[in-house]
Structures are given as C-alpha cells and as structure tokens.
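Handout, page 2. Input:
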Amino acid sequence: MAERRQLRWGRHWPQWARVWVLTWVACVPAWQVATAHEGDEHEHAHAAEPSWPDALYLPTPFPDRICLSITADAAHEIAVTWRTRAANAVSMLEIAVAEGGPDFVGKAERIEGTSSVLKTDLGEARYHEARVQGLEPATRYLYRVGDGEHWSEWCQTETAADGHEPFVFVYFGDAQNDLRSHWSRVVRNAFRDAPRAAFFLHAGDLINRAEADREWGEWFEASGFIHRTLPALATPGNHEMARGDDGGRRLSHHWRPTFALPEQGPAGLEETCYAIDYQGARFVSLNSNEQIAEQSAWLETVLADEAPTWKIVTFHHPIFSSAKGRDNRELREAWQPLFDRLGVDLVLQGHDHTYARSPRLTFQPGSLDEVNLAVGDKRQQTDSGTVYVVSVSGPKMYDLEPQPVMESWATRTQLYQVISVTPESLSYRALNAIGDVHDAFRLERTAEGTTRLINEPR
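Output:
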C-alpha cells in the first residue's frame, strides 16, 4: 500500500494536492520510513521530517520559486530561475510570442538551461537557470519552465522598449520579517497599484536569516506569481550576508541560485554590483556590505556617460541614516561626492526600518549631526544634488528622530513606492500598506537642462 501511494504521489497528483497532504503528514516519522524505501525494511535511524510549517517549503518535481531577473539588455533578453527537487536534472524553458488564444503553444521554442544542487537547512534542492536572447523589444512573451514532464504554468512578461519611453517601477525597503503573514499584503497591494510595472526593486534584507530556506520560501509565497511576470532588481542587505567558516561575512548561498542578475562590478561582487539601462534611465546596484573603495572606482566608469535621462542608484545602508543613533559616515564620504559629480538623481535604500526622504542634497563633510546642522542653517544648498530615500516594507520597525536632512518621514509604517519615469520627469509616490499616499514629489528637467524638485500634496 505504501508503494502504491508513493507512485500515485509522484506521477498523478497535482502540485497543490501534494503540498496539502505534505503539511498533514510532515510530522509523522512513519510516513517517511514507509515511502522512502518503498516497502523495504531497514533498522537504521531516519532523520525526522521537517515540522510544520517547514514542510510547506520543500521542493517537488514541479518548478517553484520561479523568478525573472532584470538583465543588462532588458529589451532583448530575459533570465529565469526556478527550483525543483534535486533529482530533476533537466532544465528546459519554452517561449513564444504571446497571442490572444492558445495557438501560441505550437510555435514555442525550447531553450536548454543549466542547474546546480544547493544544500540547505531543509535538505537538497536543484536550482535552474535559463536565459533567452535575441528577443524583440516592447514585445509580450509567454514562457514556461520544467523538465519535459513537470511544467510550470505559462507566464507572461514583456521586454523593455528599445529607447527612451515612459515606464513605472516599484521600490521596496526591507521586507525581512514575517514575510508570509505581514509582507504579503504590501507586495500584493503594490502589484494592484502598479500591475504594469516594468520591475520591482528590492533594496536589501529580503529575508532575516541568510541561509534559512524557509524564509526564502516565504518571500516567494508572499509575492505569489508576481516575479514570474515582473523582473526583480535586487541588491543585498546585511541580512543576505551569512557568517562564513572564517567568522567573516559572505553572500548567502541562496542569492545567486535565486536570481540571475548581471555579473558586473569588481571581482567577487557578481550579481550584487551591476548596472542596467531601462528605457532611457540607468539603474545601478551597489553592494554596501563590502569592497566600498573598489565599487567607487567601478562607479566612475558606469555613471560618467551623459546618455541616460535619469541616474538611479540602489544599495542597502543609508547615506543619511534615519534610525535613531545611526550614522554611516564612511559610506557617505566614499560615495556621496561621486553621486554629486556624476549627476545621480535618486538613491533608494533600506536598513533603518523607518521612512525618510531628503530634499536634494550635496556632500557636506563631517558627522551626520554636522550635516544636519549645515542643512538646518542653510549652509547646505538644497537646489542641487541627489534625493535620498530610506524605506521599509516589512513589519520590523525602529525609532526615528526627525532631522533637517529629512523632507518627509514616518515611523511604524510599512510602505511601497511607485515611481513613474518619463524623459522629462520622475514622479514618486510612497504609499502605506493600505494604499494611502504618505509622500509624493516630482523631479522635472527644465528647458535649461537643470533639475527641479517639486513636493506634491499627499
């Protein structure tokens, strides 16, 4: 009977049914003994099945954790990652131009992907990656991933336009904690407000424990199908840095299997330090956890170009800390002068579990207290420079003390930011978890080629 159940489980049951049953049987050691050996009798001890709710996040033969990642050539390329059980060694992606009916299936092209096994605290899983190049700009495509027998659903996405065209993206500060129960409503409301967004930008601390597989599973569960259709542009926070065998910090083993981001930047920072152009705007991800000086030199090469209409940078640790008692002075002194000289318009950050948005600021040497003093008595000019934002999307909150460098602020508020970009303007709205506008401003290019900041009513 046990053998018969195992065969039916693997070959006939839909994925939702397997997951549902698994959550009921996960705590019954006898189930593992009965099914793992298909009736063979063994006397040795068996590892306990993961308890609820860990069992919900175990891999199956069917693809899960499917994620589109932003690419360096978003008009002509997509990159997809997904997870299965370790035994599924075949990686396939099928893709076709989207149509209004089902006949596209017969026109789909099959692409072979690559895969590797990742050993996690919940066991082994196989992570797959497929990249499709040579696509048409501003075109809707349908794709699915699998192994030839176990397939995902068909997922729709759209390539970027090849030129300076309007678009919208959504920015999130730290999700980090209680992803399933609390962050889910934030990311889903953001999708409801911006369903045609080009991508979702995550400014670090997507999870709390770098190597906790269940937390990565919760991140995907919370966002549901969203990242199957909208690419992720992600930068690592300190909580994506795990403690290595030497006691130092290193990037989570989950990061690179989970995403397929550009491999640029200084050696050792692949998929964490990179630049992409999207419909006339240049986005740069920096890794504020390590190699600050090396990234400074690299930044000079990617932001010196005057072609982008807008220059937007994201990293985790704030240039101007909003949490009480914090000050990232070393980071500010290394990067803010570069942002001034290279014409960065907007910097999107996390880490401080509060909300704060600056006026346009240029570099002022000294501690954060000294910078605040300069801003407060108008020695710091606010009609030029960069707008800096710190935000939080998850439920973990810190204390905030309003300061002169803050044009707008909030505490104990979960937010997401919807940002609309055109060649002439950048419009920003910060909304709380129920969709109320908390902060809004607009950057406009003037006829003289300068930039003007306009604070808008909430």
